[in-house]
Write a structure and sequence with these properties.
Blueprint lengths: L13 E4 L8 E4 L6 H11 L8 E8 L5 E8 L3
Antiparallel strand pairs: 1-2, 2-3, 3-4
The chain binds zinc ion (ZN).
Zinc ion binds next to loops.
């Protein structure tokens, strides 16, 4: 697998095997908790006035789909 880098925080993306029910297979995912894309998504969801959900979107790319960018919904660890 080639190396891919997050366009938001420049960290190397991690190959991640998505759960079978998502139908994605292998994805490249930015697991950096300080990533601006991730932090902004957490703030955006919290600013909608909903209960603190601790949900954010990580940046991901789908190598099976010409490296299309994906918003990977993830539980915020904080
Ligand atoms: Zn990132």
């Amino acid at each position: 697998m080639e190396s891919r880098y997050c366009p938001h925080c420049k960290m190397e993306l991690t190959c991640w095997n998505a759960p079978p029910e998502t139908g994605w297979g292998i994805l490249y995912v930015c697991f950096n908790n300080q990533c601006t894309f991730y932090r902004n998504s957490v703030d955006e969801i919290e600013n909608k006035g909903e209960e603190r959900s601790n949900i954010g979107c990580r940046y991901a790319e789908d190598p099976a789909n010409n490296y299309r960018a994906i918003n990977l919904l993830a539980i915020c660890p904080f």
